[in-house]
Amino acid sequence: MKIYISSFLLTAIFIFSCKNPDPQLPVIAEEPVPFIEITFEPEKKNVTSVMLIATGDNLYHEPIIRNYRQGNTYNFYPVYAEVKNIIQNADLAYVNQETVMGGEEFGYTGYPAFNSPQVLARALAETGFNIVNHANNHAMDQGRRGLTATLDLWETMPDITVLGARKSGDTHSIIEMNGISFGFLSYTYGLNGNPLPADNPNLVSIINRSRIEREAAALRPLCDFLIVSMHWGDEYRLVEPGPDQISLAQMLAELNVDLIIGHHPHVLQRVESIPRSDGKETLCFYSLGNFVSNQRGKDRLLGGIMVVTFEKEITENEPDILTITNPGLLPVITHYERGYTNNKIYPLYSYTEELLDSHHGRVDDSEMTFDYFYSVLNRLNTKIYMHNPLLWNK
Fold this sequence. Notes:
Layout: E1 2-6, H1 7-16, E2 35-39, E3 46-58, H2 62-67, E4 69-70, E5 73-74, H3 84-89, E6 92-97, H4 119-127, E7 131-133, H5 143-155, E8 161-163, E9 173-177, E10 180-188, H6 209-219, E11 225-231, H7 243-254, E12 259-263, E13 268-275, E14 281-288, E15 290-292, H8 298-301, E16 302-314, E17 321-337, E18 341-347, H9 353-358, H10 370-377, E19 383-384, H11 389-393
Parallel strand pairs: 3-6, 3-15, 6-7, 7-8, 10-11, 11-12, 12-14, 17-19
Antiparallel strand pairs: 1-2, 3-16, 4-5, 9-10, 13-14, 16-17, 17-18
């Protein structure tokens, strides 16, 4: 936009805005002067955004299943009640579903070979999750039939995208939202010794460097942002990732992956931005810890919800500008009380001393304190959200 202002007017504005020793003297231009053209910055360009959140391991031990039985069915909605407003209002919400939901015929079991009631899938969907990962070490706990029954279950919910396991077809998924395209790949280090079927070796995606290179290279041109889910690392290795994780993350950066979502260690690990050859960076959350579980130990009770906002700025006659903004972690507490009852997930910002005192983990660990939680969070190298990030980002 352009406007025209007389230089006489500019002179008058300048002089009267200064301290004049004799305010009675008028300011008069000696002769007419031409108009000066002033050009303002163009209006803000077209920017769209998508907020993605991701959680760690949704791991249903047997006491959780038992405690939420109601007659002949199960009600898992209370488990997620305290975080539902966060999950439900994100644009994309990812969960690492650590257990299969093969159906009653397999029996409902916890560790070491898990099988959860199928109504858990509906609870996750209605909580707001729309991306579910099954590339993890428990995917084949109930064999091929158990995983196939789980995938059949998700097929009845068309709004859910499943990562890392498929009955047939492509190993990747592409999601488009708000004019932004996201490519997803997902891999696990192994399957607890359970074999993949000979006639479908791609039923679950296993970490293999040549395969990852091939699939990432094929998917990279098809999406604005490339996201890879990795079930990797050593269990209970707090804050610092292992050398294998660091090496794989570096490889993914060389493939121009935008975001890595890590899980499996059951504890939080730090966040890192890894330089890429194209001048950008790969954002890596090495481990988001636990989401739901009955695991014991104060380090395994502190998890995190990853928060990331993707932006796409559409420009004329230039490539679109793609950025990741406001990355951070919203800490959550895996809560359960004495006797492994009343399982819930609480954001740390709403967790209280009374709740902490009632946690079963305090029975044999007096050092499970807020100070301990904060000491871990301070080592993660990322922004920590101590409030609802939706109130800040949107």
